[in-house]
Amino acid sequence: MTIRETYDYVIVGAGSAGCALANRLSEDPQTSVLLLEAGPEAEALEISMPAGFPNLFKTRWDWQYTTTPQPGLGGARSYWPRMKATGGCSSMNAMIYIRGNRADYDGWRRDFGAAGWAYEDVLPYFVRSETNSSLAAPYHGKTGPLHVEDRRYTHELVDKWVAAAMENGLEANDDFNGAAQEGVGRYQVTCKDGRRWSTAEGYLKQAQQRANFTLRTGAQAHRLILEGARAVGVEYEQGGRRHEVGAAGEVILSGGAINSPQLLMLSGIGPADHLAEVGVDTVVDLPGVGQNLHDHPVVCVMWRTVDASDIAIDYVNPKRLIQWQLTGRGPLSSNVGEGGGFVHTRSGLAGPDIQFHILGTGFYNNGFQEPTDRMTTNGVTLVDVASRGSLRLAGSDPTWRPIIDPRYFSEEIDRQVTRDGLRRAFAIAAENPLRDHIVGPFGRPSDDVGDAALDAYIDKYTQTLFHPVGTCAMGSHAEAVVDPELRVRGIEGLRVADASVMPRVTRGNTNAPSIMIGEKAADLIRGTSLAPAGVVRNSKVEETIR
Questions:
Q1: Residue 228: which residues within 8 A CB-CB, separation 6 or more?
Q2: Of 258, 199, 263, 262, which Cα lies nearest the Cα of 514?
Q3: pLDDT score, position 31
C-alpha cells in the first residue's frame, strides 16, 4: 500500500482529550499533527449559550446513540447524546467542572496497576490545564487554556437547597476540586464571561494558529491501517470519498468510550470470538476491548414549587436572550445544573457514592418533556458504580452504530445506594428554607420511601448523566486494553487517550478528567512529565505543595 500523505501524529477525534492532545503535540514546530473529526466545527448559538445545551440533543450535532433495552430500567432503552463536532462533549455538556476524588486516581494505581496515574501524578496536569477565575494554588491554575469560572447567574432555589442540605447535616464546600470533595455548594463551570469554553475554544483554536497543525472535519475514520503489528495510518471518509493518511510516529485514538473501541474492533483489534461473529479478521485478540463499559446513572427527582421562578418557563424569551448576548449574564448564562454536592450513603467508603445536581427547573428524559409547572429538580447521581456492561459491533460496516449495553443496576449495590441517595434528597427537600417553596413531588407518592416505590421511580426517571467510560481500560491487569503509557497492547505505534481508558469512572462529571488524560498523554508521547505534587495530610486538611 502506498500512502501519499504522512504526518508525525494522526489523532482521531477532536473531543475533550483530542483537542488538548493536539494542542500540546503541535507546540513543537518540528512535529506535524493531523486531527480528524467526524463532525463539523462547533459554531452555533446554542453551543455557546450555557442554558441551551439540551437543544443540541437529537440534532445534527449529535451521534444519537441508544442502548439496548435495560432490565434495570424496567426494560427501557436509554438515549445517549454524544457531540459530533469539534470539542466533543465539552461542546455539549452542562459545563460542570469536577475533577473526581483523590481516591479515584489512587485506586487506578492500586487496583489496576496504572502506575503514574495516582492523584499526586495527575494533579499537576489539572493545574496546568486551567485558568480559574477565583481559585488559586495549590489546587488551581491561572495560565492554562481551559477557563473555569464562578457562574454568573444562580437560581434562587440553588442556594436555598444548599442551606437546607446544611440543615440536614452536610457541610459547605466552596471547592469540590480542592482538599476535600464531600459537601455541598455551587458548582464552577467551564465558561468564560458567561459563555461556554470548550476544548475547541481553549485548545484547538491555539493549535489552528500553527503551520504544523492540520484539522480535517467531516472526516469519519473507518479503520486503522496496519502493517503487521504496527499502526501506520488511518483510513477515513470525507465528502463521500475514501482517504488514507499515514502516521510516521503514532496514531492516537481520542474518540471516546464509544468510538475508540468501535474503531479498534473494526480494525481487527478486540475479542476474537466477537470479531469472527461480525466478519472482521482478528489482528490482535484483545478481549478487553469494549468491555468494562459503565456510566453514571442519574435519577431526576422533581418537585412543584411556589414563590420561585423556573428557568425554562420564565426566562427562555427574547429579552433574556438579548441580555445574555450583550452581557454574558442573566438566566441564559446558567448551566442549568448550578449547584449540588457529594455525600456518602454508608461508612467505610474511600469517597462519596452519590452526587446531587440542583436545577431551577423541571428536567427529565434529557429535557425533552418541557415543564408545564414551575419546578426544581435534584439529579440524584450514582458516582461509585459497580455495574459493568459492554460495547460490541453490530457488523463490519463502520457507519453502523455499535450495540451499547451498560447493564444499569445489574449489581444490586448500585440500586441500594441510589435508593439511599433518593431518601437523602427527600429529607433535604423537607428542611428549611427549601421546604417553604416545595408544593409536592412530581411522579411519586409524597410519603412513600419504601424500596418498591423507589424502585418504580428509578425505573421510570433514570437517565444517563452522559459519562460513559472504561471500554479501553488502562492498567497492568489481564483485561487492560492499554498500558499505563496508553499504548494499545499487541500493536506498536497506537495509543488511546480519552475517557475509554478510565479503568473505573471518577466520582463526578468526567469532562475535566478527560482533558487531563489528553494533557498527560501528550507528555507520555513526548517522553516528558510534570513533577508529581507532594501531599501533606492531616485529619482535617490536605494541602498540596507544588
A1: none
A2: 199
A3: 97
Cβ atoms < 10 Å from Cβ of 522: 24
Q: Which amino acid is at 131?
A: T
pLDDT number for residue 445: 58
pTM for the full predicted model: 0.95
Check if the beta carbon of residue 43 is closer than 8 Å to that of residue 200: no
Q: Active-site residue among 296, 344, 467, 477?
A: 467
Interval 457-471 mean pLDDT: 95
Each residue of 301-340: pLDDT tens digit? 999 999 999 999 999 999 999 999 999 999 999 999 999 9
Distance between CA atoms of residues 154 and 84, nearest Å: 29
Determine whether 467 is an active site residue. yes
Average pLDDT in the 254-271 region?
98
3-state helix/strand/coil string of 90-112 = HHCCCCECCCCCHHHHHHHHHHH
The runs of H, that is alpha helices, within 26-118 are 45-48, 102-112
Phi-psi region of 405 (alpha: psi -120 to 50; beta: other; left: phi over 0): beta
Q: What is the pLDDT of residue 97?
A: 98
**Length reported for the chain:** 546
Is 90 exceeded by the pLDDT of residue 197?
A: yes
Cβ burial 177-207 (10 Å sphere, 16+ → b, else e): bbbbbbbbbbbbbbbbebbbbbbbbbbbebb
Q: Is the omega angle on the peptide bond into residue 513 within 30 degrees of 0, that is, cis? A: no
* Residue 433, preceding peptide bond in cis (omega within 30° of 0): yes
Per the prediction, the chain carries an average pLDDT of 94
What is the mean pLDDT of the segment spanning 432-446? 84
What pLDDT was estimated at residue 446?
Answer: 64
**Closest CA relative to residue 264, chosen from 221, 224, 220, 219:** 224
d(CA 270, CA 289): 5
Q: Are strands 269-270 and 284-285 parallel, antiparallel or unpaired?
A: parallel
Say if strands 213-216 and 33-36 run parallel, antiparallel, or are unpaired.
parallel
Do strands 79-80 and 230-238 pair parallel, antiparallel, or not at all (unpaired)? Answer: unpaired
C-alpha–C-alpha distance, residues 123 and 119, integer Å: 6
